[in-house]
Amino acid sequence: MTWTDDPALDDGPHTIGRWIVDRAAHSPERVAIDDRGVRTDYATLATRATALADGLRRAGYGPGDRIATVSGNSTDHVVAFFACAIAGVAFVPLSWRLTPRELADVLGRSAPALLLIEDEHASLAGEALRVADAMPPVAVLGTTGVEASVPPAAHPRARRPVYDDDALLIIFTSGSEAAPKGVVLTHANCFWNNLALARALPLTQDDVVLAMLPQFHVAAWNCQPLLAWWVGATVVLERSFQPARVLQLIAERGVTAMMGVPTQYALLADDRDWLATDASSLRLALVGGATMPVSLQEPWTARGIALTQGYGLTEAAPNVLHLPAAEAAAAPGAVGRPYPHVSVRVVDPVSELPLDGEATGELWVRGPSVFAGYLGDDEATARAMRGDWLRTGDLVSRDADGVFRVVDRLKDIFISGGENVAPAEVEFALCLHPLVEAAAVVGVPDAVWGERGVAFVVPAAGAALSVDEVLAHARRNLAAFKIPVHVEFVDALPRSTIEKLARSRLRAQARMLMDRSGESDDADGAPVDGDVRTKGESR
């Protein structure tokens, strides 16, 4: 059976799973995905997705279940996403950049009913499963794997329709606490997010969207790709960020729209083929993850390509603010105004009272795209919310024209190459070393990556501990982007009068250390193979 002759779909709910089915009915022969030169049209994509969805339902999976994946960007991964959407199963893409220990932890937190693995990451997933608390059924992605045979569910679900408030995506993201949290986004959250994007930065079926952000981030779905599939455009999937390769794709595929972080745009402009590349097709280049410095915008402006600044967080699905390219020159450093269907307020961080007019305070967000909560963590959800307002943890300023700028982060998180790094998570990993008594990590500015981590380590009494040993330990327990660029041994960590860690003093000390050593430009611990992270999504 194909999507064209399934009567259940004709009468079924119009949630996100319907997007690919409806689009296939209108333009079946249009190219939906260009995956390293292999093109898949909408009819084929819909047929594969609905067939897999039917297989999942027959095997006992349904609303309330979660299916996790460990996969790079691929057509097979997109098929699995839409199959889950049609079947009402939450899709949980996990990061292949994690260490086995980290991956085992998020597997435990997500408790998937099924784990789908891409062959390339089978070794990582296998190591993680060996140390994980539970062993879910496992299958390989693709036509010869799960699409051919779905492992039966351990706890079969009764079949029912898919509702707007069913979970669609669960994205794990680092916050101000040591443990990563699963952000639950419903079909409704993602619908309203993409509707807002369609009104502010529309795409048409004639667009060619370059998707180079890894699909374990929300931006890889909700910042152009899902909207592209909604309207019938073509999505060019890239598995990693290699500047020369991206420039080649822009020219050869006639890319019209893309999303990236400032680091990526900087590396593209620094590539030797930058000036020789025909980028005349590119009309919408969206920036997220951090504010784009004016110096990094200049090479793009000189080529006649205006960059559209955005701001968001995973908990808002993620789009909150955007600055149209036409206004960027007049408002350097700004991140813009709210998207349609998104309400924001500036709040005094102490009194939590809203501030009117020109003001500086914490940014709060409200709207139908705000998340349903953190997976299995009601306390963390309650801390993030004030009624129906989401606290972003970001200090912003709003000018007389209603344009926002990000001033600082109230929480301790820092962003390296667009990837959120929670100091508490890095500190916990460092303290797993038997010779480390205590550790503190702060972010320092970096010309390429935005920010990098500096670790202050207190060795255990009498311990002979070297920097190399600490870094080797970090590499075994942390993803590459979390590894500190510098380790400084100290006798004790500075504390405030109420015994809280005095991070502001450590930040000042870290900046001085970096200024003296020049290590802030060192690439050690940076994303490998040119892989750069996405939108600065979560807090």
Task: Tag the structure with descriptive keywords.
31% helix; GMP Synthetase, Chain A, domain 3; 539 residues; nine-stranded mixed β-sheet; disordered N terminus
What is this structure's SSE topology?
Elements: H1 7-11, H2 17-26, E1 31-35, E2 38-41, H3 42-58, E3 66-70, H4 75-87, E4 90-94, H5 100-110, E5 114-117, H6 122-131, E6 138-140, E7 167-173, E8 181-186, H7 187-200, E9 208-211, H8 219-222, H9 225-231, E10 234-237, H10 243-253, E11 257-260, H11 262-270, E12 284-287, H12 294-302, E13 307-312, E14 319-323, H13 325-328, E15 337-338, E16 343-347, E17 354-355, E18 359-366, E19 373-374, H14 378-384, E20 385-386, E21 389-398, E22 404-409, E23 414-416, E24 419-421, H15 423-430, E25 436-446, E26 450-459, H16 467-477, E27 486-489, H17 503-517
Parallel strand pairs: 1-10, 3-4, 3-5, 5-6, 9-10, 9-11, 11-12, 12-13, 26-27
Antiparallel strand pairs: 1-2, 7-8, 8-19, 13-14, 14-15, 16-17, 16-18, 18-21, 20-21, 21-22, 23-24, 25-26
Helix pairs in contact: 2-3, 3-4, 5-6, 11-12
